[in-house]
Each structure stands twice: as structure tokens, then as C-alpha cells.
Design goal:
Blueprint: H1 8-17, E1 19-22, E2 25-30, E3 33-37, E4 50-58, E5 73-78, E6 84-88, E7 93-97, E8 103-107, E9 109-110, E10 116-117, E11 120-125, E12 131-135, E13 140-144, E14 150-154, E15 164-166, E16 170-174, H2 186-189, E17 195-200, E18 206-212, H3 222-225, E19 228-232, E20 238-242, E21 248-251, E22 257-262, E23 275-279, E24 283-287, E25 295-300, E26 306-311, E27 321-327, E28 333-339, E29 349-354, E30 360-365, E31 372-376, E32 379-384, E33 390-398
Parallel strand pairs: 3-22, 9-10
Antiparallel strand pairs: 1-2, 2-3, 4-33, 5-6, 6-7, 7-8, 11-12, 12-13, 13-14, 15-16, 16-17, 17-18, 19-20, 20-21, 21-22, 23-24, 25-26, 26-29, 27-28, 29-30, 31-32, 32-33
């Protein structure tokens, strides 16, 4: 689509009010924050300058080689030599593969000792190639060498669940906060909500915070309604994609909000109240109301483009599955997945692509289930955690078609 021709006078007026229109998108600037309201049609139109080529999968629930049989895999990271490390959480291990997808080694075990897991949840790789894994039940960060040797087993003061490793020893983690049973005046408390994320090290030193929770309905609903996914680009900028809100945000590492992005959806934003009930001395039940899901993960490629997994529609009854985690008093952990786990295909998801200025470029429909996304070089890994227990692999092919 061609850029609109704007007269000098019109440009001056537009700059004065801080509002413009690019490729059919509406652009604002408020207090130094770029705000992009995308239209339905992306900048690429019908002429996409790149394509996605599905090249295979990593892992298969029915594989003959047990080193490729994952159970509830959580994530994958890549080292500078092209080796991949899969956090095979349900099997309490990390699987290492070379750049061709060939198995190299396995490390980690179930247990409570150094280098062992009860409920591993996140994996990262530092500048020296060491592998970091969080374990919410053992309440530790386990650090391994690239050869699988246990380097450090550290128990921070606070849990480090859902982290992204930034550099060698700094972690982007959700801000620990719970509002269940919050006493006091709700109108006062909602104006004093905590940040969404903070950057800290294993010693507890805090280097900064990102974002502020948006108050939604009440203090019980607010934390869950602000659930989000994160990614970091090669310049260190941090991106947050909200699961139930029509918003993607970009921050610098010092916490400055640089950009906010929204786009038209095929459905309305819907968030019902979370109901919290107490019984007995310590009993509590939490039931989230019906919510429309919007995003399922975000990643950034080497060209600064954002790739966001978005729902094209909401989940159908026959697509629903239930996951449960049971933790006994002695910290024994069991996981289970129920529902139609044999179902592999769906038209529920698509990949939205935005440029580094927040302009929607185009969309790629997907035909499988999605639980997360990572990009390494020109390769995209999309996780199907609970059904296929595998990663779908796509190659980004550039220079196809015309961008005009």
C-alpha cells in the first residue's frame, strides 16, 4: 500500500496535535510514548516480502527414540554454536540437540538435590553458555554448564518463575504480588498497584521495574487479567504481549515505556470477575470468570520485527483440555493433561508480524496448537506443549514479493 500524500500544511497540523496516519494506521505520541492503532489490513497487503516454510518438528510424543519423546516441554533456548536445549519439564530433564536436531545429551533428574527438579518451569542461557532453570517447588535456580554439569544451585529469597535471562546474571521476572483477601479501601489500593515486571539478580538486588498493572474490575481479578508474555530484542528492549488485553508494549531496560500497540480483533475483549472463596482456616478456592484470549506468545527476530501469536477465534468445546498439578506435603509432584489430546490441527491461531515501529505488516495463519514462540536467527520454534509435546519449526524466507 502506498504512503498517503500529505501537504506541508497538513503535516504541520498533524505534528502539532501529535497524531498521524501511516499505511492506514493511526499514530499518536503521548509523553514520549509512541502509540500505534493498527487497522485490519497490514502494510504488506497481498505482496509479502517473506514467507514461512515449515521444515519439521523437534520432539514427537510417539517417537521411537525416547530422547525425542517429550512430556509437557516448557521452552527451548539456543547457544552460540547452534545447539538447542529443551526443558522437558514433565520428564524432569534437559535435552540437548545439535543444529541438525540430532540428540547430544540429557541432564537433570527428578529430586530435591543440586541439579534436580520437582517442577521446572523456565529455561535461559547466559553469555557464557550456562543453562539456567527455575524450579518453583524446590524454590531454586539450577545452573548447568553446556556439558550438563551442575554449576550452581541457588535459592533466592523470592521465586523466579517465568523468567527471561538478560545478560549473564540478570532476570526479568513477574513482580510477586497477590491481592486475594487484600484488606482496606479498594478505591485507594487500585491507585497503588505494583509493577508488572522487575529486573533482579540471584542475590535479590533490583535493577529496575517495567509497567504498572492495569486495574480491572477488582483486586482479585486484576493480577490474572494482566497475564502476559515477554521477549527481548538484541538491543535489550523488552516487549510485553498481554494474554487478555488488546495491547503490546515496548520498554527500555530502565523501565521507560517506548511504545504501545493495538489492532482490530475478530472478537471483543471480555474479562469476567475472578471469584475467591475462603473456607476453614486456610482453605481458598479461586475461579476465574470467562475471558477471551488474545495473545499466546511473542518473539523478536534479528531485524527487529515482532512475531506475536494471536487468537483468530476462541476455543471450541472439543478443543478444550485440562491441565492439573498436584503437590503433596512432602513436595511430591504429579502432572496430568486430560481432554482430546489426540487433536493436533486447529485454525484458532495466527502469527501477526509488526515492524520495529509497531506497524502491522501481515499475518500468517497456523494450523496447529500454540503455547509459546522462540526465534533464533531465521528459524521460528512454536511450542505445542500439551498435545503434540513438540516444537513446530519454520524457516523465514526473505526477499519474496514486493513490499510496495
Amino acid at each position: 500500500m502506498k504512503r498517503p500524500v500529505i501537504s506541508l500544511l497538513s503535516a504541520i497540523i498533524i505534528c502539532f496535535v501529535g497524531f498521524s496516519n501511516v499505511y492506514g494506521q493511526k499514530i499518536e505520541n503521548k509523553d514520549g510514548t509512541r502509540i500505534v492503532h493498527n487497522e485490519k489490513k497490514g502494510k504488506w497487503g497481498k505482496n509479502y516480502p517473506l514467507s514461512l516454510e515449515e521444515t519439521g518438528t523437534l520432539g514427537d510424543f510417539y517417537a521411537e527414540d525416547e530422547n525425542y519423546v517429550f512430556y509437557i516441554p516448557e521452552d527451548v533456548v539456543k547457544d552460540k554454536d547452534g545447539n538447542l536445549y529443551v526443558l522437558d519439564a514433565g520428564n524432569f530433564r534437559i535435552q540437548k540437540f545439535n543444529r541438525k536436531g540430532q540428540f547430544i545429551l540429557s541432564f537433570g533428574n527428578e529430586g530435591q538435590g543440586p541439579g534436580e527438579f520437582r517442577l521446572p518451569s523456565d529455561i535461559g542461557i547466559d553469555e557464557e553458555g550456562n543453562i539456567h532453570v527455575s524450579d518453583m517447588v524446590n524454590r531454586r535456580i539450577e545452573i548447568f554448564s553446556p556439558e550438563g554439569r551442575s554449576v550452581q544451585s541457588k535459592r533466592p529469597e523470592d521465586n523466579f518463575n517465568n523468567f527471561i535471562l538478560i545478560g549473564r546474571d540478570r532476570y526479568l521476572t513477574p513482580y510477586s504480588a497477590s491481592f486475594f483477601g487484600f484488606d482496606g479501601d479498594e478505591e485507594t489500593k487500585k491507585d497503588d498497584l505494583p509493577p508488572l515486571y522487575r529486573i533482579r539478580d540471584l542475590e535479590g538486588k533490583e535493577y529496575g521495574t517495567l509497567g504498572i498493572m492495569e486495574f480491572i474490575l477488582d483486586l482479585n481479578t486484576t493480577p490474572g487479567a494482566n497475564n502476559s508474555y515477554t521477549a527481548v530484542d538484541k538491543l535489550g528492549n523488552i516487549y510485553i504481549s498481554f494474554e487478555n488485553l488488546n495491547r503490546i508494549e515496548k520498554y527500555s531496560q530502565d523501565g521507560k515505556l517506548l511504545m504501545k500497540i493495538d489492532r482490530p480483533l475478530n472478537f471483543e475483549v471480555k474479562i469476567e470477575k475472578t471469584i475467591v472463596k475462603r473456607f476453614g482456616d486456610d482453605g481458598i478456592s479461586v475461579s476465574s470468570g470467562d475471558r477471551n484470549k488474545i495473545s499466546r506468545g511473542i518473539a523478536v527476530d534479528d531485524n527487529g520485527r515482532l512475531w506475536n501469536i494471536t487468537y483468530r477465534r476462541q476455543e471450541k468445546k472439543e478443543e478444550e483440555i485440562n491441565t492439573s498439578i498436584s503437590i503433596s506435603r512432602n513436595d511430591a509432584v504429579s502432572r496430568s493433561v486430560s481432554g482430546n489430546t489426540d487433536l493436533r490441527e486447529t485454525d484458532m491461531y495466527e502469527l501477526e508480524v509488526f515492524d520495529n515501529e509497531g506497524i502491522l505488516l501481515g499475518r500468517f495463519p497456523l494450523n496447529h496448537f500454540c503455547d509459546g514462540i522462540r526465534i533464533f536467527g531465521d528459524t521460528i520454534y512454536i511450542l505445542d506443549k500439551n498435545r503434540g509435546n513438540q516444537f513446530y519449526i519454520y524457516k523465514i524466507n526473505e526477499n519474496i514479493g514486493d513490499n510496495d
